């Protein structure tokens, strides 16, 4: 029987590690030190850690342009990822994939694509290969809410279902695509209705409670494997950071871009590493679960370890 508090403490360490590591990346980003765009994912830490927790060695993870939280959670280190962003030969993929296509096959991340929707079709092929080779692993593929507009999203679901392939298709819904709020961009797409129309089980995750996410995802993964079926999971996220930008319509800097670039309002010195005081921030949820003193203690330790790693 696992100890819930021990689990929560170790999960908290991992979530804080991803948050503070991203804050450290952001500091270099704010200084204009990167030659490539990076899509930070403040607010996406809980789902990234939960996916890492449910993955076994043979599982395959397929990611999008906004992959930083997943790459950090699978690797458990910052240095090789930071080096990759600096396009150094010591980088995680020897400077071959940079940020938007960053893979880590030794940890199951075998494909990452910045081409919207392309990762779904690749996931079908990987799931088919696992089935043909009778491997134990499952395919887990990520997409953003913007990718629901792509034909490959629908075609891939159709193929998963028609070929009885197991897999978890996870949509991170931050209600943004590029620098546009989804509601300003297009009509609402009801993912649950779509999934049901393909006879795909649909589950929605929200609230950023890590133990809740892990428990539900473990069950869904087992179900998908046992019944050779695709399961569609929509996870509500708020990409935090208030990236205030100017454009022609908003010369005073009222325009908030959740797409790429540094997050000027986020400061690495903030302790604990909280960005928003509501449940959209995984750190806020952890403060409520563990108490501020315990969280500060863990946060100080993680911050120290990351600083040592980056010396
Ligand atoms: C086929 C294709 N069309 C357009 C783009 C340009 N593009 C890059 S990211 C993006 C939208 C991303 O929105 P979403 O999938 O919701 O991810 P988020 O950035 O919100 O995490 C678009 C349209 C692209 N990369 N590929
Ligand atoms: Mg989005």
* Uncertain stretches of 5 or more adjacent residues: none
Rg, rounded, reads: 19 Å
Strand order of the largest sheet: 2-1-3-4-8-7
What's the helix count? Answer: 11
Structural class: alpha/beta
CATH architecture: 3-Layer(aba) Sandwich
CATH topology: Rossmann fold
The CATH homologous superfamily corresponds to: Thiamin diphosphate (ThDP)-binding fold, Pyr/PP domains
The helix content, as a percent range, equals: 40-55%
Keywords:
single chain; 311 residues; Rossmann fold; alpha/beta; 10 strands; binds thiamine diphosphate
Account of the protein in words:
This protein is α/β, with parallel strands linked by helices and 311 residues long. The protein has one domain (4-310): Thiamin diphosphate (ThDP)-binding fold, Pyr/PP domains (Rossmann fold, 3-Layer(aba) Sandwich). The protein has eleven helices and ten strands. The chain has helices at residues 4-30, 45-54, 68-75, 79-85, 118-132, 151-162, 182-185, 191-197, 210-227, 282-290, 292-310; strands at 60-63, 109-112, 139-144, 167-173, 176-177, 180-181, 201-205, 230-236, 244-245, 255-256. The strands form three sheets. The chain has a six-stranded parallel β-sheet, with helices on both faces. A two-stranded antiparallel ribbon has the order 5-6. A two-stranded antiparallel ribbon has the order 9-10. The longest helix has 27 residues, at 4-30. The protein is globular and about 50 Å long. The structure holds thiamine diphosphate and magnesium ion.
């Amino acid at each position: 029987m696992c100890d819930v508090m021990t689990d929560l403490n170790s999960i908290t360490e991992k979530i804080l590690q991803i948050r503070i590591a991203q804050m450290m990346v952001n500091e270099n980003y704010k200084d204009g030190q990167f030659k490539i765009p990076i899509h930070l994912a403040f607010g996406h830490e809980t789902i990234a850690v939960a996916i890492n927790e449910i993955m076994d060695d043979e599982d395959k993870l397929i990611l999008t342009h906004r992959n930083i939280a997943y790459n950090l959670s699978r690797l458990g280190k910052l240095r090789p990822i930071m080096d990759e962003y600096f396009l150094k030969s010591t980088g995680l993929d020897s400077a071959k994939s940079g940020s938007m296509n960053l893979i880590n096959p030794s940890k199951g991340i075998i494909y990452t694509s910045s081409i919207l929707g392309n990762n779904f079709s690749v996931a079908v092929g990987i799931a088919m290969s696992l089935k043909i080779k009778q491997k134990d692993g499952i395919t887990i593929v990520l997409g953003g809410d913007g990718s629901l507009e792509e034909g490959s999203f629908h075609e891939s679901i159709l193929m998963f279902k028609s070929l009885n392939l197991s897999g978890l298709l996870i949509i991170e819904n931050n209600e943004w695509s590029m620098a546009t709020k989804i509601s300003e961009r297009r009509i609402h797409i009801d993912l649950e209705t779509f999934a049901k129309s393909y006879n795909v089980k649909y589950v929605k995750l929200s609230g950023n409670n890590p133990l809740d996410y892990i428990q539900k995802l473990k069950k869904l993964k087992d179900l998908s494997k046992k019944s050779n079926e695709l399961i569609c999971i929509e996870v509500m996220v708020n990409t935090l950071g208030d990236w205030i930008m100017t454009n022609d319509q908003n010369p005073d800097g009222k325009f908030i871009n959740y797409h790429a670039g540094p997050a000027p309002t986020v400061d690495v010195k903030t302790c604990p590493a909280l960005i928003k005081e509501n449940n959209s921030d995984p750190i806020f949820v952890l403060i409520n679960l563990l108490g501020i003193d315990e969280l500060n203690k863990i946060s100080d330790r993680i911050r120290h370890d990351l600083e040592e790693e980056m010396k």
